[in-house]
């Protein structure tokens, strides 16, 4: 639960700056929050296939945003990965 409280703190900081709602960082944080909520929901309801589909779509969106961020702002990408405790994608 420490991760969720940390995400809520980040979201509050981001919400204070209304200009940053469209930023890649804010979108990644909000997608991460949705992913964690859906994951906990799916632990209880294993056969909720529509939620599973929604989770896969959100995961894909977050993955694309993180790929974009890693290309444009590598330092901010590393910082965001560390803050959200998301595993960095391995390159081949």
From TrEMBL:
Entry-linked Gene3D superfamilies: S15/NS1, RNA-binding (1.10.287.10)
Cited Pfam families: Ribosomal_S15
Annotated localization: Plastid, Chloroplast
PROSITE patterns given in the database record: RIBOSOMAL_S15
SUPFAM superfamilies named among the record's database cross-references: S15/NS1 RNA-binding domain
GO molecular function per UniProt: structural constituent of ribosome
InterPro entries in UniProt: Ribosomal_uS15, Ribosomal_uS15_bac-type, uS15_NS1_RNA-bd_sf
GO CC, alphabetical: chloroplast; ribonucleoprotein complex; ribosome
Gene Ontology biological-process annotations: translation
SMART domains per UniProt: Ribosomal_S15
Keywords, in A-Z order: Chloroplast, Plastid, Ribonucleoprotein, Ribosomal protein
Database matches in PANTHER family: RIBOSOMAL PROTEIN S15, BACTERIAL AND ORGANELLAR, SMALL RIBOSOMAL SUBUNIT PROTEIN US15M
Subunit structure: Part of the 30S ribosomal subunit.
Family to which the UniProt record says this protein belongs: Belongs to the universal ribosomal protein uS15 family.
Protein name per UniProt: Small ribosomal subunit protein uS15c
